[in-house]
Write a structure and sequence with these properties.
Layout lengths: L12 E6 L5 E6 L4 E6 L12 E4 L8 E2 L5 E6 L4 E7 L6 E10 L6 E6 L5 E6 L4 E8 L4 E9 L15 H11 L6
Antiparallel strand pairs: 1-2, 2-3, 3-4, 5-6, 6-7, 7-8, 9-10, 10-11, 11-12
Length: about 180
């Protein structure tokens, strides 16, 4: 690997991901409570100035676009919210969706996001709730509606636990329970 450029982060990006075209880098800033988008040049270098920088709330943990590349979702552990954005893959602009976020129950802590490979289902692991919640994605509006929440630990579990990354659980849920998601 060879460095091709460097830009100041300006804060504390907790998560970065490319959009589906590979032309934009989206970032979620944990303590700064914002999201940003930088363009990626033909040589792979990031533009120094972000195309978009939008305040959300503290504890933004991730940001990803959906398969259509028209919507982006940002889970936040502190305020227990999932911010919903519209994404323009031509300009790289993010705009708040309507409604701008999904409020999850107290002490849920949505942290990471994963998309079902073939259905309009989005999964969020809940750090504080030791669970995974599935949401139906309205593919026209780009909004989420909860389907169900499943625990990642047994009901009688009494040890300390944090559902920091539930990738394996999400894969299991998709493969084992995919037939039930078509409700």
């Amino acid at each position: 690997m060879k460095a091709i450029g460097q830009i100041p982060a300006g804060a504390d990006p907790a998560y970065v991901a490319c959009d589906n075209t590979g032309r934009y880098l989206l970032s979620a800033y944990y303590a700064a409570g914002k999201v940003a988008v930088h363009s990626i040049g033909p040589d792979g270098a990031l533009a120094a100035t972000p195309i978009a920088s939008i305040e959300t709330a503290k504890n933004a943990h991730a940001i990803m676009t959906d398969a259509s590349n028209r919507f982006a979702f940002v889970p936040h552990t502190g305020p227990n919210r999932i911010y919903q954005f519209r994404f323009n893959e031509t300009s790289g602009m993010l705009t708040a969706n309507d409604p701008p976020f999904v409020q999850t129950p107290d002490r849920t802590g949505p942290r990471h996001v994963a998309f079902h490979p073939t259905q309009p289902i989005v999964y969020f692991d809940n750090e504080q709730g030791s669970s995974v919640t599935s949401y139906r994605l309205d593919t026209e509006q780009g909004t989420l509606s909860p389907i169900e929440t499943l625990p990642t630990i047994p009901e009688n579990f009494t040890e300390n636990n944090s559902c920091g990354s539930a990738t394996d659980f999400i894969r299991w849920s998709v493969s084992i329970r995919s037939q039930s998601w078509s409700r």
